[in-house]
Structure formats: structure tokens, C-alpha cells
Specification:
The chain is built from one helix and seven strands; from the N terminus they run ββββαβββ. Strand 6 and strand 7 form a beta hairpin.
Length: 101
């Protein structure tokens, strides 16, 4: 099962590798997975999905077509590796969820 644990929303920066490619407004939903079974441990695992909207001239549909992994730096300094799932700016995490550099 999973549980919604956080919904951060603000402006952030998008990077492709170390290259800054633009600013976006983001709204994310952070889910934590857990087990239904009593006494069964599940390693911490966060899944993040949400939406980005370009603040500047960033071409979000082009990011979707390129299909490359990007990194979002949230306003609080955390990072999220993600893919753009569609041309409307829906995003999905690709790795370890939210993390600090």
C-alpha cells in the first residue's frame, strides 16, 4: 500500500545533468510505500508524481519528446530525478524520490 505524506508546491529549477535548463512551478504528491502485513518491514521507498508548468520559456512538450531524465531542485533545496510523462507536464520520479545533495 501507499500513503500520501506530502504535497510540496512552489517554484524550482530544472537541470539536465549539471546544466540549468529553466524554472518551473511544481505541484507534487509524495507517496510512501508500506506493508499491509503486521510485523512485515518494507524498506523506505518514496514515489513522487506531479506536474510542472514553465515559468520562463522552457518548452515542456519538448522535454517530454526527448525522454531524458531531469532533476528538479525544489525551493527547500531537495532534489527530484524525474521524467516528463506527457506534453501537459505530468512528471514521475525515476529513482530515489526526494533527496538532499
Amino acid at each position: 500500500m501507499q500513503r500520501l505524506i506530502e504535497q510540496p508546491a512552489d517554484d524550482g529549477d530544472v537541470f539536465e545533468g549539471l546544466v540549468h535548463i529553466g524554472r518551473v512551478h511544481y505541484h507534487l504528491a509524495v507517496y510512501q510505500h508500506f506493508s499491509d502485513a503486521e510485523k512485515e518491514t518494507v524498506p523506505p521507498n518514496l514515489e513522487v508524481e506531479g506536474r510542472i508548468i514553465a515559468v520562463n520559456d522552457l518548452d515542456v512538450p519538448d522535454l517530454h519528446r526527448r525522454g531524458t531524465e531531469l532533476t528538479l531542485r525544489l525551493a527547500d533545496g531537495r532534489l527530484l530525478d524525474f521524467l516528463v510523462a506527457n506534453e501537459e507536464g505530468t512528471i514521475r520520479s525515476t529513482g530515489r524520490g526526494l533527496y538532499k545533495a
